[in-house]
């Protein structure tokens, strides 16, 4: 009797194995590498929402395995390679720090397609995709200048990479378009994810007199501190209204879902090719969370700016713009080209910080 | 301004001090538990989850202590009863704690937390400056100070403390003298776990009242380093914890102030300061040897 049960169990397992094996052959694997936890309430959560939308839309044709909490560095290369080896057809690596690791693995696996978020190194089987976050930052800067009583905002930054520097500059330019004397204090937390440290940075900035806070780190801790101290703040990557119902003015919300679906469809159709995609507000790859906790005229201004950016009427980096040291960068009416923006390593005039090199 | 900075420093230093004090007791008994980070994050998730369910951060605080303590029993069972390698088990405990806490906490992600409110002493809190800084804090701060005094007394003034230090220095001799080595070590490990749990509870109830995976972000490892930094003396843990906290917060203020020093250098300062102090301490090799528990990390099997 016992033997019979074992035999039955074994054959059942075998059958089960076969059926899943057959399914896996039909379905293509579209894989994701996350730098943080998919429940971080910010950056990684936004990517994972995109993955879930992809799953919903094309779940019959693709599987979407993911690895979370992958540190940037040597471990990343191993994680990406593991994904490539496990039969993924398309791998999305979703953090700037995965750039070199993705390039290396892409060279080793020419048949696998890769897409790296926010980077600038491409290959025939490696595309890059990015979102024009700076468009949202510009709107935030305008709101900050209207809402701040002291004319000083605090900016919690992660690492001095072009992406972050671009955001700081866009915020300052937006603010200056409303209040030419607006000041921006920057604190580098040197981390993407450390609630404690982000909260400490927020407290330090508030203690030094800022009354508007914005962040380019991943957790809701700064929003929470702002709420506790009774000042206003902007959310980052995800809508953070739950952490500060009376605090959040708006948030830049990353909405990667449509993009992931589009690219996976291209893979299935056989039309995928390596591109360097940089979409903005008009493409819906980023959206602004509802404008809250502000008077109607400020809200109207923000909505108007958003519409102008979407229609292409307004480019946040339009001259005349001076660099921090006062030297000229863009002439009146001149627009910054994408190459300069993606490699941005200088501040514009008005940022009250020394850029770490 | 100085007061504001000091208040932030206290919040940042308290979890380090509490977790390090617990580990100090564990190590004084001769057990090296590298799982502080794991026990801390378990404390954080238990405290947050129970606070959300019960609505009382005090019940949550207790749950954090309990969570860390119970989790450390796993380490105790593996290393004391089964005599597994302490270093490997401690590392495993950290990895397990990080994973398990993520699992437990999944339902609580993104919920706004309930903050543990400060206990303001009537009269005493009216003293200028000191009143705000010392007598208007939350319970975990008072705990941390009480622990320093209590542990210092226990280790160096009480008979049980003397026995425990004897076990840490030479478990074979202590055993021969009839001291129950395993039982004492179990208690020391659990005390360490409970303290790490309390430190974790401070993170999710006071420091940043929310739950996110990995929210301890390496503080357990800093606490571990603090114990060595303090050469196993409670008062030095307090001093070391506050030095570390002060440099961490000070550099953020220096940045916001626009002092013009590269932020990467400033971020490295707390660690650089730690190294400098370590060099100064280890200058006198004899005192270091006297304070280091001689049986630290060595397995013990009673011969009969």
List keywords for this structure.
heterodimer, A: 357 residues, alpha/beta, Rossmann fold, 2 domains, seven-stranded parallel sheet, seven-stranded mixed sheet, 20% strand, B: 304 residues, mainly alpha, ABC transporter involved in vitamin B12 uptake, BtuC, 0% strand
Strand content of chain A: 15-25%
Strand content of chain B: under 5%
> Could you state the order of secondary-structure elements of chain A as H and E?
HEHEEHEHEEHEHEHEHEEHEEHEEHE
Indicate the CATH topology of the largest domain in chain A.
Rossmann fold
Tell me roughly what share of residues is in helical segments of chain B.
over 70%
CATH homologous superfamily classification of the largest domain in chain A: Response regulator
Q: What series of H and E elements makes up the topology of chain B?
A: HHHHHHHHHHHHH
Overall shape of chain A: it is globular
In total, how many domains does the architecture of chain B comprise?
1
Describe the structure.
The complex is a heterodimer of chains A (about 350) and B (about 300). Chain A starts with a helix and ends in a 5-residue tail after the last strand. Chain A contains 11 helices and 16 strands. Chain A is an alpha/beta fold. In chain A, strands 1, 2, 3, 4, 5, 6 and 12 form a 7-stranded parallel sheet that branches. Chain A has 2 domains: about 20-130 and about 255-285, Rossmann fold, CATH 3.40.50.2300; about 135-255 and about 285-350, Response regulator (Rossmann fold), CATH 3.40.50.2300. The termini of chain B are far apart. The longest helix of chain B is centred in the first third of the chain and has 27 residues, at about 1-30. Chain B has one domain (about 1-290): ABC transporter involved in vitamin B12 uptake, BtuC (Orthogonal Bundle), CATH 1.10.3470. Chain B has helices spanning about 1-30, 35-55, 55-80, 85-105, 130-135, 140-155, 160-170, 170-175, 180-205, 220-230, 235-255, 265-280, 285-290. At the A-B interface, strand 8, helix 7 and helix 8 of A face helix 1, helix 11 and helix 12 of B.
């Amino acid at each position: 009797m016992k033997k019979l049960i074992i035999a039955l169990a074994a054959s059942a397992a075998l059958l089960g194995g076969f059926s899943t094996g057959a399914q896996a052959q039909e379905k293509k694997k579209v894989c994701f590498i996350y730098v943080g936890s998919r429940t971080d309430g910010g950056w990684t959560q936004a990517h994972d929402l995109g993955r879930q939308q992809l799953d919903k839309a094309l779940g019959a044709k693709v599987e979407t395995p993911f690895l979370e909490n992958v540190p940037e560095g040597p471990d990343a290369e191993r994680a990406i390679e593991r994904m490539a080896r496990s039969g993924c057809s398309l791998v999305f690596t979703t953090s700037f720090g995965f750039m070199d690791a993705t390039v290396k693995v892409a060279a080793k696996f020419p048949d696998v397609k890769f897409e790296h978020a926010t980077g600038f190194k491409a290959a025939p089987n490696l595309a890059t995709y990015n979102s024009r976050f700076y468009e949202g930052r510009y709107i935030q800067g305008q709101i900050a200048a209207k809402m701040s009583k002291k004319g000083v905002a605090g900016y919690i930054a992660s690492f001095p990479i072009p992406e972050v520097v671009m955001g700081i500059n866009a915020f300052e330019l937006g603010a200056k378009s409303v209040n030419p004397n607006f000041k921006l204090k920057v604190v580098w937390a040197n981390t993407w994810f450390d609630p404690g440290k982000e909260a400490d940075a927020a407290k330090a900035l508030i203690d030094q007199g800022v009354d508007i806070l914005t962040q380019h780190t991943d957790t809701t801790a700064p929003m929470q501190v702002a709420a506790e101290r009774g000042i206003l703040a902007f959310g980052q990557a995800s809508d953070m209204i739950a952490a500060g119902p009376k605090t959040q003015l708006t948030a830049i919300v990353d909405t990667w879902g449509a993009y992931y679906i589009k690219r996976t469809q291209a893979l299935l159709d056989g039309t995928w090719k390596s591109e360097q995609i940089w979409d903005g507000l008009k493409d819906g790859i980023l959206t602004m969370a509802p404008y809250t906790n502000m008077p109607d005229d400020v809200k109207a201004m923000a909505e108007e700016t958003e519409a102008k950016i979407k229609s292409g009427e307004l480019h946040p980096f339009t001259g005349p713009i001076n660099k921090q040291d006062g030297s000229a960068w863009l002439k009146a009416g001149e627009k910054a080209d994408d190459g300069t923006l993606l490699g941005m390593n200088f501040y514009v005039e008005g940022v009250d910080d020394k850029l770490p090199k | 301004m100085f007061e504001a900075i000091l208040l932030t420093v206290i919040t940042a230093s308290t979890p380090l001090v509490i977790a390090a004090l617990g580990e100090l007791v564990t190590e004084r008994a001769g057990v090296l538990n590298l799982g502080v980070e794991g026990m801390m994050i378990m404390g954080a998730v238990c405290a947050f989850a129970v606070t959300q369910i019960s609505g009382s951060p005090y019940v949550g605080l207790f749950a954090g202590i309990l969570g860390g303590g119970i989790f450390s029993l796993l380490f105790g069972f593996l290393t004391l009863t089964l005599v597994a390698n302490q270093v490997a088990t401690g590392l495993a405990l950290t990895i397990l704690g990080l994973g398990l806490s993520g699992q437990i906490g999944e339902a609580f992600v993104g919920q706004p937390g309930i903050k543990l409110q400060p206990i303001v002493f009537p009269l005493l809190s009216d003293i200028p400056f000191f009143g705000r800084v010392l007598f208007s804090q939350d319970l975990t701060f008072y705990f941390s100070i009480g622990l320093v005094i209590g542990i210092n007394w226990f280790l160096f003034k009480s008979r049980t403390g003397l026995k425990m230090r004897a076990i840490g220095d030479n478990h074979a001799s202590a055993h021969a003298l009839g001291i129950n080595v395993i039982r004492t070590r179990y208690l020391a490990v659990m005390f360490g776990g409970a303290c790490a749990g309390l430190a974790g509870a401070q993170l999710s109830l006071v420091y940043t009242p929310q739950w996110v995976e990995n929210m301890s972000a390496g503080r357990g490892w800093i606490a571990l380093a603090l114990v060595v930094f303090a050469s196993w003396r409670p008062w030095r843990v307090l001093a070391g914890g506050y030095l570390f906290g002060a440099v961490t917060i000070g550099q953020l203020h220096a940045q916001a102030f626009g002092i013009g020093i590269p932020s990467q250098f400033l971020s490295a300062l707390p660690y650089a300061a730690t190294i400098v102090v370590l060099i100064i301490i280890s200058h006198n090799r004899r005192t270091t040897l006297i304070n280091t528990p001689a049986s630290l990390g060595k397995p013990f099997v009673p011969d009969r």
